[in-house]
Amino acid sequence: MDAHATVAHATLDGEGLLLAAEFPFGELNARAGGAIARPLALAPVATVARLARRLGIIVSRGVVVADEEADLELWVRAQPDGDGVRLAISGWRERSAWAPVDGVDESHPDFLRDHGDWAWEADAGLRLTRVSIEAGRRHGFDAIGLLGEPITSLFALATSNGAVPLVEALARREPLKGQPAKLRSNDTPVLLSATVRRDAAGRFGGFVGLVHEEPPAPAAPPPPLAAEFTAGLDKALRRPLAQIIANADSINAATDGPVPPDYADYAADIANAGRHLLALVDDLVDLEAIERPDFLLAAEPIDLADVARRAAGLLAVRAIDKDVVIDRPPTGTQLAAVGDFRRSLQILVNLIGNAVRYAPAGSIVVVSAVSGAGRASITVTDEGKGIAAEDQARVFDKFERVDPTEAGGNGLGLYIARRLARAMGGDITLTSTPGQGARFTLTLPAGAA
Description:
Elements: E1 8-12, E2 18-21, H1 25-31, H2 43-55, E3 59-67, E4 70-81, E5 84-96, E6 118-122, E7 128-131, H3 133-139, E8 155-157, H4 165-172, E9 176-183, E10 189-198, E11 204-212, H5 227-253, H6 261-290, E12 300-303, H7 304-314, H8 316-321, E13 325-327, E14 336-339, H9 341-358, E15 364-372, E16 375-381, H10 413-423, E17 427-432, E18 438-445
Parallel strand pairs: 13-15
Antiparallel strand pairs: 1-2, 1-5, 3-4, 4-5, 6-7, 6-11, 8-9, 9-10, 10-11, 12-14, 15-16, 16-18, 17-18
Helix pairs in contact: 5-6, 6-10, 7-9, 9-10
């Protein structure tokens, strides 16, 4: 039988679960850890199927999947069929698996030759493309279910000497060394290393990495983010991201003519992803600033109640979209404080924005102003699901999020907000009971009445 001419058929249901698969596709999926009545274990094939189901059209695309010691080039044709999808897989051309090239820059050794405990891979967008199934069994996570998810769904990243090595490695397109982390499933401490994967054109294609479950002591911690680096990152990314967002918004709004609803939704997803990346750039610039030893903020008289009203006004549209009411300090209420106006506004936009994000529809976010004992305070109270006691300290840590699977920020907002508050002689505190919402309080030195 000519393997190249073989066409294998498979069917998926509306949830993406495999209902039936012909030889040799069924065996290939099984070798990757899949089975009937489970999601496809071959992430590139599953991506084509999801796209066809979402757009409601036939999608044909070439993909490459790993198969033991080699890679297979396949041609996938996905056709919507009711709620499910019918697949036809052909091609079946074997090629040598990707491997790092010997003799690359000797200052960045081939990390795949380290003796790590297990392996992982991620694409250029830091979405997982390979996770050890055996490690998943040992540590209680679903290796197949994590495919296509952000790397932070598997690892809780920590800082090293005030920096996050993975962020620097991604920005500089360099191998990764000494990234401390914990497994989300059981808090096992690990150390991550990775070499850069490049595509056939030599462009950055992601990371191929190892997990060390008993981290060795790093030889030398990486330097903190330098001002030159964040300035360059800001300059390099801000304009193209703004163009991407503007163009995607134009497509979504159909300003140049009718657009199919599915494509309009896809454009909205692109715009939202661009805004998320732009916010990350802003946060990285702030991060570099607040961690400098000479970082100072202006101490000037401000009306903290007025700052709170302005912050609530900036978030009014977002609150309306979520069917949430923001109860702000009444007009005429004054709260004299000493601090930096712009940074105080930034803090309160973050606190109120978080409250709106997690508040249930039909609820109220209360922003209240209180003074006393030489302090001026703004408290933001929501009616969301609350934060468990064991998580309340770490929400202020860098790159930490209580539930990384939820839509939201990048884990820097509260860290930056608290550092800014403390730089003004104040603080941010949290009280919360699971199921009863959360109360974040910004406190600054009181000013003259």
